[in-house]
Amino acid sequence: MDERLVDxxxxxxxxxxxxxxxxxxxxxxxxxxxxxxxxxxxxTRDLRVYYGDFLAIRDVDLDFLSRKITAIIGPSGCGKTxxxxxxxxxxxxxxxxxxxxxxxxxxxxIYAEHVDPVEVRRRIGMVFQKxxxxxxxxxxxxxxxxxxxxxxGELDALVEESLKRAALWEEVKDKLDQSGYSLxxxxxxxxxxxxxxAVRPEVILMDEPCSALDPVATFRIEELMRExxxxxxxxxxxxxxxxxxxxxxxxxxxxxxxxxxxxxxxYDETNTIFTRPADPRTEDYVTGxxx
Amino acid sequence: xxxxxxxxxxxxxxxxxGIAWRFVFQASTIVGIIVLTALLYNVINxxxxxxxxxxxxxxxSLAVDGVAxxxxxxxxxxxxxxxxxxxxxxxxxxxxxxxxxxxxxxxxDLVQERVIRPQLVKTWTLFETLFExxxxxxxxAEKYPGARLQFFSWLNPEFVQRPQSSDPLRAGVRTAILxxxxxxxxxxIFAFPIATGAxxxxxxxxxxxxxxRLIQTNINSLAGVPSxxxxxxxxxxxxxxxQPITSGAVFGLVDDPTTxxxxxxxxxxxxxxxxxxxxxIINAQEAIKxxxxxxxxxxxxxxxxxxxxxxxxxxxxxxxxxxxxTILAVSRAxxxxxxxxxxxxxxxxxxxxxxxxxxxxxxxxxxxQWTSRPxxxxxxxxxxxxxxxLLLLLALNAAAVLLRNxxxxxx
Lengths: 291, 411
Known about the structure:
The complex is a heterodimer. Chain A has ten helices and twelve strands.
């Protein structure tokens, strides 16, 4: 068992809780929390993404702090998913997509010439909007990723550990050879999370992970996210304002600019964004007055 | 309510419309079934039925000391043979292989062929056999008083085991079946890997450029090119240009290089391979396209390379479709006649093909050749050969379906 795996299920999550750190206000500088430096796992600098000639997101400068949950919110079509997918170079799979600027991962630009996107994606995992388990057994869903990366350890133990971390072990331990599709939607999504963490990533990107789930399953995933945040840096895109408020430590607000390009208009502690946003557009959006 | 509902009164009309279309579609299905039944009726009708046989000598008269011909020993049969044929003919057979070395069955067949000499004078269809028996017997008594009536199943185990012959009573399709199997094996080995590879490249790797689109358009058009044109292509490339290879001469398989010719199984297999390649490519592309992108994303998101994604997710999830497309294409190749006629399949060959460099005939060629004969009996064996071809197709399809179900174990 990984020693980093600590049980944090007793953690109480509420809006009134004070985050462990103060707001990050100066991009490029270290954020100090009670005198201790706060690590930034991911930073974007002047990040622009084009689809053909169309500019999808413009000049995003955003920091994602280690072992924190950062939510990206904003209206439909403002480039939230594009931003998320550019954080582990998944956007490159769209043939016409083009990325400019930098995404620094632990001080290393993942868009640098010699960087292999395959390695980037192992270390920065992804969970998708619609649960997409492989049409294989539950066991194989978890083990496959480890196997292709040449995992040397005991696969059975890895599968168990990953499923436990994804809070799915108790439900599936007796049917590991059954299809991933035999699970319910919420279980499938947790299987996808287990699959993602089986290759030991440092960051997990989640693209509206609960939009296809019912409220009960959504609640379980949110609980899980809070637990995982003790180990992983998590970035989540969501349309659900309550969800952003419930689970995230920091929130980035995106909005369409004049020329239809997405822009990041505000970034702050979640608490601040939802109670005292600096930008009136953010206030309109989070209070539901927008559009 | 004093306002008129604008939607009132059209439900019944819409329903009627639906019912009318339903009948149209039902009628189409029924037409299809009728046509298929007519085809089967036609083939089966010719494959079984009565035939009038005229015998040179009544076998009963050949009985020795009350023992019937079928029961006689090898020596007795050889004596009968010698007594009933001309001296010259006997000598010819004796030089070919001394009678003491021939088995009893061989001598018995010779007696049948040369002494009893059954001749088909008239054949009747299954329908006539079953429903017009009286008319047949009247005709027999009137026109062929010496003939005997016998029920023939033209499709029988011996028909499948015997080689080609100019006598419809002794002709079989073994040579043709083996030829068909050899040709198809070459076709599949040649076309399947190349076509599947091309489909994977076009779907998974090829960038969306004008060149790719041009290639795609060409493949689509090639799938519709008439098969005889592939025959001409095969004749030019495989039979003529690549003659040293397709005849086996470069491998030292031809005794006299001046008589080498490329009209061999391998030339036919390669030609049919070219013919079905575009079809397999298109079918395989469709199957690969049907793999949801969410699976590819999941794989890439885990840090898989493109090849790992294709090998572990795209192919396992499309192999069933790829194989189905291949089965359909191969079924077409099995039944192809025109290109093989052009590249020079043998129409009369009595020895079995023994490798990719031997001459060959195939079932459709055999059927084509028999149906173009004037004698009525050849129609019967052509019908029997058609049933053999259909059974061969069914067997190939069944094998492929089993293979597909086995390798596409889906959750």
